[in-house]
């Protein structure tokens, strides 16, 4: 049995900043509402024609992570790509990253677990490393939301939240068994699948021919639907539960956490969790203010920024936690 550690991190966000005031020119919203309810000040959106896609953004983040891991792309044994916004219906973006990076014939797996996607992907990588199957695994979370949002007042409760971006990590075999990913914890509750969902272009029993013939501009099934308050109530409970589960498994107390990186869903959710566990501002990292909710990309982007800012040091206990559509949720406990 081996240990696995995060040996390299990287992120990429499009240069185009979209402020709350910019959104208020497209729909009936305002900076005060958005900041008060979500903490978001701005987010990044791709610009039409710039060529950024979920896969290409993932590649950009991956290149940084691979370089920082100090390995060659040929050393990557496996790729796991988490997203809810793949470039194609199939194949998934894992193989596109493989193509772009020129990595030959290693396995590429796509994970579809929305905001928890990165935790699920990390957990898969962790198992493959711990069992000695692979030595270096590239894990990517990338999301292109802006091209699929309803940017009218009809969609405002959802559209103001999401942003585009990608984060990546290289997970590497670690011989020192006191360091690395200590445990991961995954959950889901399919009973609430429709509370936060994008039901098209999934066919769901529909015929493509009928969908194309209908060509209905008012078909909201092409936009994400979210029962915001219900999601919020479940999120605060599940975040807390799954963090506690990880701490208990490793005989840790909330006070042992050096850095909690919550999935950046809503600043109020992060603050609730922070308060519940009695954590100081230094123990929790948030960057939703700058990027909005980038779903599967939010944890690797935040983790990379926290690391780049020197907020994570060797030996630190780092806890990652996420909750999102499915519902799915999970956590990871890491000794850095
Ligand atoms: N600007 C101005 N007013 C708005 C906006 C907006 N952008 N959006 C909604 N409103 C209005 C509503 O119309 C409503 O008005 P009314 O009272 O006159 O009817 C009022 O504001 C309140 O709307 P709510 O939807 O009840 O607002 P709420 O306080 O619940 O905040 C939010 C909405 C921010 C979406 C919140 O519910 C939330 O963060 N939920 C959790 C999101 C989450 O964690 N998602 C999980 C991850 S995402 C994933 O997995 C894909």
TrEMBL record:
**A GO biological process held by the record:** fatty acid biosynthetic process
Q: Which residues cross the membrane?
A: none
Top-level taxon:
Bacteria
A single GO molecular-function term is: beta-ketoacyl-acyl-carrier-protein synthase III activity
Q: Which Pfam families does this UniProt record tie to the protein? A: ACP_syn_III, ACP_syn_III_C
Using the record's annotation, list all stretches that form the Beta-ketoacyl-[acyl-carrier-protein] synthase III N-terminal domain. Answer: 109-190
Beta-ketoacyl-[acyl-carrier-protein] synthase III C-terminal domain residues: 247-336
The annotated pathway is: Lipid metabolism; fatty acid biosynthesis
**Which residues act catalytically here?**
115, 263, 293
Q: What is its main location?
A: cytoplasm
Please list the reactions this protein catalyses: malonyl-[ACP] + acetyl-CoA + H(+) = 3-oxobutanoyl-[ACP] + CO2 + CoA
Note the Gene3D superfamilies from the entry.
Answer: 3.40.47.10
- Family annotation (InterPro entries): ACP_syn_III_C, ACP_syn_III_N, FabH, Thiolase-like
Q: What is its EC number?
A: 2.3.1.180
Provide the function of this protein: Catalyzes the condensation reaction of fatty acid synthesis by the addition to an acyl acceptor of two carbons from malonyl-ACP. Catalyzes the first condensation reaction which initiates fatty acid synthesis and may therefore play a role in governing the total rate of fatty acid production. Possesses both acetoacetyl-ACP synthase and acetyl transacylase activities. Its substrate specificity determines the biosynthesis of branched-chain and/or straight-chain of fatty acids.
Q: What is this protein called?
A: Beta-ketoacyl-[acyl-carrier-protein] synthase III
Q: What is the lineage of its organism?
A: Bacteria, Pseudomonadati, Bacteroidota, Flavobacteriia, Flavobacteriales
Q: Which gene encodes it?
A: fabH
């Amino acid at each position: 049995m081996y240990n696995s550690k995060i040996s390299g991190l990287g992120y990429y966000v499009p240069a185009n900043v979209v402020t709350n005031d910019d959104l208020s020119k497209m729909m009936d919203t305002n900076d005060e509402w958005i900041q008060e309810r979500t903490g978001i000040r701005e987010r990044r959106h791709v610009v039409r024609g710039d060529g950024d896609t979920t896969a290409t953004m993932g590649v950009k983040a991956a290149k940084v992570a691979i370089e920082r891991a100090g390995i060659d792309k040929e050393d990557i044994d496996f790729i796991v790509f988490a997203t809810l916004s793949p470039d194609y219906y199939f194949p998934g973006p894992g193989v596109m990253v493989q193509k772009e990076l020129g990595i030959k014939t290693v396995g590429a797996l796509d994970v579809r677990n929305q905001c928890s996607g990165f935790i699920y992907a990390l957990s898969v990588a962790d198992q493959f490393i711990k069992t000695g199957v692979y030595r270096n695994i590239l894990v990517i979370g990338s999301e292109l939301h802006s091209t699929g949002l309803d940017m009218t007042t009809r969609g405002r409760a959802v559209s103001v939240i999401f942003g585009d971006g990608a984060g990546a990590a290289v997970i590497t075999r670690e011989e020192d068994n006191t360091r690395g990913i200590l445990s991961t914890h995954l959950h889901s509750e399919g009973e609430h699948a429709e509370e936060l969902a994008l039901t098209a272009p999934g066919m769901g029993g529909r015929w493509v021919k009928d969908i194309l013939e209908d060509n209905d501009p008012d078909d909201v099934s092409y936009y994400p639907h979210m029962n915001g308050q219900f999601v919020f109530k479940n999120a605060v409970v599940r975040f807390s539960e799954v963090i506690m589960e990880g701490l208990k498994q490793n005989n840790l107390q909330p006070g042992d956490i050096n850095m909690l990186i919550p999935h950046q869903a809503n600043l109020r959710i992060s603050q609730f969790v922070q308060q519940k566990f009695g954590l100081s501002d230094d123990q929790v990292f948030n960057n939703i203010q700058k990027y909005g909710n980038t779903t599967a990309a939010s944890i690797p982007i935040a983790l990379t920024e926290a690391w780049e800012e020197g907020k994570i040091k060797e030996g630190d206990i780092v806890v990652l936690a996420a909750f999102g559509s499915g519902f799915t949720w999970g956590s990871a406990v890491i000794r850095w």
